Structure formats: structure tokens, C-alpha cells
């Protein structure tokens, strides 16, 4: 009970701090924060599958892109409102995640990684192939109507940051509740020892599919929100780079922790931002930092805090 | 209660079981005795659906379990404590027990009953399983399996590597479960454990059943068990 209260205070406190930051940060950093919050939702989706269920996917760009293109195509070509297009994006991601999960979960370990990677590559190539509608590599810019939600024009920096913060807070609190729930504990049990969970009577095959769908849906929501807030839909978001990034964010922040995705995205974002001002070889700096972290804090920043100081950290 | 008849099983092309027969009754401790590699653990894994038998029949109270998915077998009332404990290491003691309870039909009160059996666990409820001693981990593994409220309990070398006081505690709990009416199938290779606990012993060698001994048989010819185990 004490841990539940601490958890509530922690998550509520983080949301309050972010709101304070959003209100006080200068324009440049406020813009960064908007992007970080949306990408953190993507990382949270990835963390559900990798951090909590123990399934390492290399194909999450497929779900992010499914949400993004589901939103973008239904708004730009179908003429749907932003709210309806958002639902269409989320539904597209859930459907793609369900189909991918049903097939990819017939494999495990390295084969699962390869199969998910192949699905994502197939998705990327499909986007290029259907260039008549998707505009291929070039992508397309969304009309102004697709960027108005509940009367707010999301082209303005302030409204965009408020929308990103609202989305992040809702997903952050929902994933915190999920990971503490019966379903969340069972997913952790699968990560810890799948065979043992099965012997205790849990249908691990079904539960892993549920985890893929939840993870893919949240990733798709992030993709749809990214399109809505930044007004652009492009094939670059479906490349393998966007499958690797959430893995790095989660590893850096702390896999299997609720705060890890936010910490990882923010650290990586500012590490690249800072190092790119210092040197052209900024990815080398980012790579060295990641290697250092893997060697000295393999559980990531939040994982390290949990191990050293706060074992109750969810 | 639990019956195996002519069970064959293999890992790929390697035959491990080539005709195992066993009948464990309610209220008895039925030992499965054999040397290393005889097929004892594989027999338990076959009961749990983790190895699919190539031939033969496994039944619980007459209902066929052969081919039933592993996750449905526990729900039929079979608890399994595998060799090596297999806890959820990053979960606390309380969470491990809760995982066992939720899988079955027991109410929340089962936790207090488990703490009654293993008071040490009550002092460690918020401790993560990986930080427990070997004996405490074994207590937790047994308590978690019992949290399902099973009718049959499968124990695979539960006292292996434990200090004498822990061994005595696990044996005491095993006897109490037998007295409570459970059918306990105990894999053992130690003669002292078999003679202290077993009501009946099924001898297994190279994947085949080589006979079943009663307590009276063991008393009449103690050398037979020694010969079978090669000690």
C-alpha cells in the first residue's frame, strides 16, 4: 500500500513537474519538450513489450508508421476530422500489431527479432510501393483541418505542447496503472520465466499477443499524434532506424520501469542536440555514451536508481 | 488419481521415456526413483504438458490429460515444483505467492495459510525472490505451487542442496500435504528421503518403469532400492 502511494506521488509529481516546465521553458526547449513527450509515448509502447514482457522487437517502426499513415491518409485523403483520424490511426496500428503478433509470436528469441524486423521492412516497402497515395519517400504535409482538435489549432507552439503533455500524461498514468495491475504482473511473470508462468496455468501465448497489441497500439497512437502535431507524414518514420530508436531510449532510461522511456528519450534527445553543436561526429558521441551506460549501468538510469536507492520504483 | 500408462516421450530424436507406468493415489506420497538421466524429470514434465508424449496416456481422475496445453493442466489441479525452483526472481515473495493464487481458485486467505506452513516467508513478503537463501527460495516455490490449491503435487528433488533444518521443514510439509489428502509425486534419488517419506515407490530406469514397491517391500528388501539406484 505504501508502494502504491509512493507510485501515485511519483507519477503525479512527474506530470506536475512537466506542466511546470511547459509553462516556464523558453521557446526552443519547449519545442524540444513537445517532441520528447510524443516520442516518450512511443518508447512507453515499446517498453510494454520489451521491458515488461521481455520480447525484443526490431519492428516497432511498423506500428508507429501504421498510426501515422492511418491518421494522415484518413485525414488527407478521406477528409476525416482530426479526432476521427486519430481513432483511425490507432485502429490501424492495433490491427497491424494483431496480425504481426499472431504470426511473429510463432517464433521466439532471435527469430522473433528477425521476423518483426522483416515485417517492418515489408511495411516500409509497401509505403514506397503505394507512392500514389503515400507520396513515397517524399511524404506529405497535412492540411490545416487535420490539425484542429476540439477547437484548438495545433499548429501553434503553445497548443501543441499542451496537447503533447495531455497525451503523455494520460499514457504515462495508464501504463503505470497497467503495469501494477493483474495483467501487468502476469506480463512481468512471462518476462521472468515464461515456462513457469505457463505451468502455473497462465495462457502465455494469448497474453504475449495481448502485449504485442497493447504495445503496438500505444506506438501507433504516438505515430498518429506525431503526424497531427507536426503536420507531416513520411516514410522515414517507417525505416529500421525508428525501430532501433525506441530500443535505445528504453535501454538508456531503464527497461521495465515506468519512468525509463521519458528519461531515455530526453537524455538521448539532449545528448544528440548538445553533441551535434560540438562536433559533426555527434553520433559517435551518442554511441560512446550508450556503450558506457551499457557497461556501467546496464539496467539504465531508472533501473540503476531502483537498484541503488528506490527498490519500490515501478 | 494421477495415472500414467505406457508413456513414451522424446526430445527431438532422443528417446527419453519408453514406457512409464505410474498410479498416484490421493493421500499418498509416491516416489519416482531412479539414477540420473533415468527419465524422472521428463515424466513430470510430460504430466505438466511441457513434453508431449509420443505414445501412452496420462489421466487425472480418469480424464485424459495427454495433449492438453500446459496452462490448462495446472487449472485441473496439478501443482508442480520443478528442480531449480524457477521463481520469478525480480518479484517479491508476496507477488510470487499472488501469481500462484491467481492461477487457481483459492481466495486471498491462502497466503496466510502458506505463511502458517512457512513462517519465514511471512517475514520476507516484500523481499525480492532472487535475494532469498536457497532454502527460502524452495519454501517459496512449494508455497507458490500450493497456492493453486492442487489435488496433485509434483515435487522434483525438493531438498536437493538444502541444509538439514530446511530439508526437515520441506519433508514435514510434504507429509502434511499427504495427510491433507493430496497425491504427492516426489522425484528422489536419495535413499534416506525415499525411505522416510514414500508410501510407494515406482522404479524407473532408462525411461522405463521397472516395478513398484510398497513400504512393506522396502522394509523386506532394502537392498533392492540400493541396487536400483546404484549406491
Please describe what this structure looks like.
The complex is a heterodimer of chains A (314) and B (231). Chain A is mainly α and 314 residues long. Chain A has helices at 2-24, 27-52, 60-76, 82-104, 109-129, 131-134, 157-180, 182-199, 204-230, 241-253, 260-278, 282-296, 300-308; strands at residues 140-141, 148-149, 152-153, 232-233. Chain A has 13 helices and four strands. Chain A has a two-stranded antiparallel ribbon with strand order 1-4. The longest helix of chain A has 27 residues, at 204-230. The two termini of chain A are 13 Å apart. The mean pLDDT of chain A is 92. By secondary structure, chain B is an alpha/beta fold. In chain B, the strands form two sheets. Chain B has a six-stranded mixed beta sheet, with helices on both faces. In chain B, strands 2-1-4-5 form a four-stranded antiparallel beta sheet, with helices on one face. Chain B has helices at residues 40-47, 70-75, 93-103, 110-117, 119-122, 134-146, 164-179, 191-197, 215-220, 222-229; strands at residues 2-11, 14-24, 28-33, 55-60, 63-64, 78-81, 152-156, 183-188, 200-205, 208-214. Chains A and B meet through helix 8 of A and helix 2 and helix 3 of B.
Amino acid at each position: 500500500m505504501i508502494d502504491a502511494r509512493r507510485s501515485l506521488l511519483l507519477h503525479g509529481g512527474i506530470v506536475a513537474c512537466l506542466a511546470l516546465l511547459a509553462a516556464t521553458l523558453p521557446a526552443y526547449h519547449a519545442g524540444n519538450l513537445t517532441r520528447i513527450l510524443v516520442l516518450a509515448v512511443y518508447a512507453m509502447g515499446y517498453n510494454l513489450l520489451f521491458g515488461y514482457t521481455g520480447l525484443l522487437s526490431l519492428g516497432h517502426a511498423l506500428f508507429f508508421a501504421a498510426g501515422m499513415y492511418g491518421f494522415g491518409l484518413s485525414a488527407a485523403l478521406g477528409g476525416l476530422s482530426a479526432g476521427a483520424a486519430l481513432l483511425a490511426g490507432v485502429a490501424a496500428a492495433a490491427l497491424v500489431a494483431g496480425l504481426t503478433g499472431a504470426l511473429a509470436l510463432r517464433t521466439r528469441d532471435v527469430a522473433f527479432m528477425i521476423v518483426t524486423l522483416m515485417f517492418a521492412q515489408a511495411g516500409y516497402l509497401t509505403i514506397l510501393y503505394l507512392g500514389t497515395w503515400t507520396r513515397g519517400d517524399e511524404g506529405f504535409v497535412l492540411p490545416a483541418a487535420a490539425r484542429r482538435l476540439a477547437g484548438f489549432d495545433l499548429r501553434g507552439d503553445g497548443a501543441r505542447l499542451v496537447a503533447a503533455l495531455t497525451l503523455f500524461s494520460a499514457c504515462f498514468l495508464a501504463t503505470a496503472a497497467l503495469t501494477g495491475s493483474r495483467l501487468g504482473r502476469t506480463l512481468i511473470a512471462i518476462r521472468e520465466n515464461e515456462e513457469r508462468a505457463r505451468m502455473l496455468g497462465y495462457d502465455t501465448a494469448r497474453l504475449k499477443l495481448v502485449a504485442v497489441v497493447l504495445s503496438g497500439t500505444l506506438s501507433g497512437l504516438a505515430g498518429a499524434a506525431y503526424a497531427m502535431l507536426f503536420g507531416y507524414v513520411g516514410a522515414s518514420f517507417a525505416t529500421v532506424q525508428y525501430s532501433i530508436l525506441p530500443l535505445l531510449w528504453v535501454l538508456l532510461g531503464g527497461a521495465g520501469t515506468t519512468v525509463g522511456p521519458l528519461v531515455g528519450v530526453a537524455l538521448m534527445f539532449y545528448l544528440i542536440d548538445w553533441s551535434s553543436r560540438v562536433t559533426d561526429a555527434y553520433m559517435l558521441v551518442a554511441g560512446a555514451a550508450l556503450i558506457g551506460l551499457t557497461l556501467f549501468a546496464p539496467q539504465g538510469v531508472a533501473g540503476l536508481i531502483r537498484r541503488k536507492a528506490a527498490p519500490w520504483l515501478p | 488419481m494421477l495415472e500414467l500408462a505406457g508413456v513414451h516421450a522424446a526430445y527431438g530424436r532422443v528417446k527419453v521415456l519408453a514406457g512409464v507406468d505410474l498410479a498416484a493415489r490421493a493421500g499418498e506420497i509416491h516416489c519416482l526413483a531412479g539414477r540420473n538421466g533415468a527419465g524422472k524429470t521428463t515424466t513430470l514434465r510430460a504430466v505438466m504438458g511441457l513434453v508431449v508424449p509420443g505414445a501412452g496416456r496420462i489421466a487425472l481422475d480418469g480424464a485424459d490429460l495427454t495433449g492438453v496445453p500446459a496452462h490448462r493442466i495446472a487449472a485441473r489441479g496439478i501443482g508442480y515444483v520443478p528442480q531449480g525452483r524457477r521463481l520469478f526472481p525480480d518479484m517479491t515473495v508476496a507477488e510470487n505467492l499472488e501469481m500462484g493464487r491467481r492461477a487457481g481458485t483459492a481466495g486471498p486467505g491462502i497466503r496466510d495459510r502458506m505463511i502458517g506452513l512457512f513462517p519465514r516467508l511471512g517475514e520476507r513478503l516484500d523481499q525480492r525472490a532472487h535475494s532469498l537463501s536457497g532454502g527460502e527460495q524452495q519454501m517459496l516455490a512449494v508455497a507458490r505451487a500450493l497456492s493453486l490449491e492442487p489435488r496433485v503435487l509434483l515435487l522434483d528433488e525438493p531438498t536437493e542442496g538444502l541444509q538439514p533444518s530446511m530439508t526437515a521443514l520441506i519433508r514435514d510439509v510434504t507429509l502434511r500435504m499427504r495427510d491433507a489428502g493430496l497425491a504427492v509425486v516426489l522425484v528422489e534419488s536419495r535413499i534416506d528421503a525415499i525411505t522416510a517419506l514414500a508410501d510407494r515407490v515406482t522404479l524407473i530406469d532408462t525411461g522405463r518403469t521397472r516395478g513398484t514397491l510398497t513400504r512393506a517391500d522396502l522394509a523386506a528388501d532394502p537392498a533392492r532400492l540400493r541396487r536400483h539406484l546404484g549406491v
